[in-house]
Specification:
Distance between the termini: 46 Å
Oligomer: single chain
Number of strands: 13
Helix content: 40-55%
Radius of gyration: 20 Å
CATH architecture of the largest domain: 3-Layer(aba) Sandwich
Number of domains: 2
Number of helices: 12
Strand content: 15-25%
Strand order of the largest sheet: 2-8-7-6-5-3-4
Structural class: alpha/beta
Shape: globular
CATH topology of the largest domain: Aspartate Aminotransferase, domain 2
Length: about 375
Amino acid sequence: MDYEKPLFFRVMQYAERADRDVIDMVSGNPDWEPPEALREGLREYADLPVSEYQYPPSDGLRELREEIASRRNVPIESVIVTNGTGEANYLAMAAALDRDAGEEVVLTDPVYPYYPGKTGMLGGEPVYAPVEEDGRLDPDAVRERANEDTAAIVVNSPNNPTGAVYGEDTVEALVEIAEECDAILVSDEVYDHFDHSGRFASALSVDSEHRAVTTGFSKSMAITGLRVGYTVLPPELAEPARTRHMLVNVAGSRPAQHAVLRALRETDPDYYEANRAMLEERIDAFTDALDAAGAEYTRPDGAFYVLARFDGFPGTMENVERLIDEAGVAGMPGDAFGESREDWLRFALVTPRAQEAADRLASFFN
């Protein structure tokens, strides 16, 4: 089977080859500091005995799983620690498709491109539900496309790339739809610490055997390189997912899990609030500059991405390359996220140079 290489890598490689200074607004790599307790956990680990350098339990350090289960009010048996949220999504989607309850996976349009990529890799068939212009998801759009052949409904809130946040009513309706068609709602909540609206509702707030939650610490703790995520699965899906995880990975990183556990226990909520406030300031500055450039844009209610549309400048790879070469700003082409946003460009505000990037865009388009 041929797999399509994610476009992110092509854009980043092109930007790296540029012969000028380029501001990277492509990937969601946080530029702020991780919790100090996490650094202390890594330093502490370096001096532990050699026995602590061997395989951890395949489904994660028990102490970490206990901490997660306690915080999320779920049974520890439902928690599998994964190599980032990406693997958590893979396990949850695979578990949904392995039930022989259908082959279709309902996704949103626009969509984070790794979801359709995983769908194809797992032998599923993607079906797309459009969202509103501002990114809001009407559950009726999902209901119209869900049927007896639907294995999974995959959503992301706060959303990449739209910045939409799904509230309690939307989440409850999505779980209800999954129950009606014997599907699994896979709710990717990796940006849950970056809710700027106060409306975010986790799928774990709904008691159902038809919902799985995936998330991780890459964004909230600014540690995309440590690869610590987790999934919370219904009991009957957890054991086969645990086996698949073992066969694919054997285990995760013991030092990374140790450090995350210490950071969970010792990091004050002010850490997360400060980062959220900093991002909101960046959003204000970036969108103000987009106003000056005459751009149309979506102001994110969550996460840290802005979709922008410039008149006569569709979001193609060719135009992304042109912005890199002529403006010194690297973003993502909108058509990477689906047909509905092919005229748009997506910018990740995880750089201290976000204001400078916006000024460069304003100069380019004016």
